[in-house]
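# nightly structure sweep
# worker-07 picked up a monomer target from the shared queue
# config: single-sequence mode, recycle default, output format = structure tokens
# input follows
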Amino acid sequence: MNAALDNTLSHWHIAAAWLIFLASYLVFAIGRLPGTKIDRPAMAVIGAVLMFASGVLGPSQAVASVDFATLVLLFSMMLIVASLHLAGFFEWITRLAIEHLSTGQLLPGVIFISGILSAFLVNDIVCLLMVPLILGLCKRMRLRPVPYLLALATASNIGSTATITGNPQNILIGSISGIAYRDFLAHLGPVAVLGLFIDWALLHWIHLRNGNGEAVQAVQDEIAASREPEIHPGWPVAVSVGVLIGFLLGYPPALVAATGGALLLVQRRHSPKMIYGDVDWSLLMLFLGLFLIIGGAQQAGVTEQLLRAAEKLNLQNHVIFTAVVTLLSNIVSNVPAVMLLKGLIPQFHNPHQAWLMLAMSSTLAGNLTITGSVANIIVVEKARAEAHIGFLEYMKIGVPVTVLTLLMGLGWLAMSG
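# output follows
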């Protein structure tokens, strides 16, 4: 009798895990539960709670399924970027652009500034802070903002490919794989640099080859004569440089970033509450919820069945693997895609290369459509009141940039091993 009851409960747990898993990933795919205001982070929390409520996941399994190093690194990088923002670092960069860049130089300026910043800071937050600055810059220079907003979105994704701290999925991959910061940078840094040049060439060809024709000298004179806003980036920049040096020296990224974040909370100019206000708590909740949903799915054997089915696709083939990651990243978004595929990578003949391939393809795939990455959505939504970017208009640049950068990345990783 007890055995039959246990068997029934086991079947119920498996069915519940499948239902919660599929419902969660459906919302991740469409972005919002129809007829409600439940978005991806909210669904991640709801799915995690349901895993507990249905008995699929217990306290000990829940703790084991969460990668705390990933959460600490992500949160700490948010503290660092928030401190830079409050100190006026991004406004300082914008002012330098106004003073030293002509209209012909602004496109590569936006591409390489946003790409470099996104390589070492979390790209979603860079986009969140840079959109209003670029809109203001274009207004003062009398430029149509759409090409420069597209440059911000695409370049932030490409630049973030370079390092473990470039974007949320790389933070996860770096934590799980154990790949050193310098090793990651050595393999994917060149992909990011070459990708930024490809992005520049395509954006110029599609949007600016006929010229923009706006005079900016009067605007530059006006800016030069205006009173410079109060900017104090010294301490946050010094701490950020120290954190980067710690990464490059090979110290644990989560510990280094946490130390930097803690140091930035010790200051007179801004209270910790102001810094916390710039933290993307919804992204942290998305990660925590996903860890628990995937943990529940693993307990019930859901992910094992999915990964067995995936083996039939010959994912050891780099082209097929990249295509699958690109498709999945654009269906459910790149972080849920990486969460789902992370259990597959240790089975590859060369796990080190496979982790790098997953990081490269899931990040560059984000440029395919507006919904391909959170960074794209941030740019489009935050600029909507002043500059509308349609789905098809985005894809005119997104598709060629994604295809060419992925092909280049595949070739580079194949050569570098």
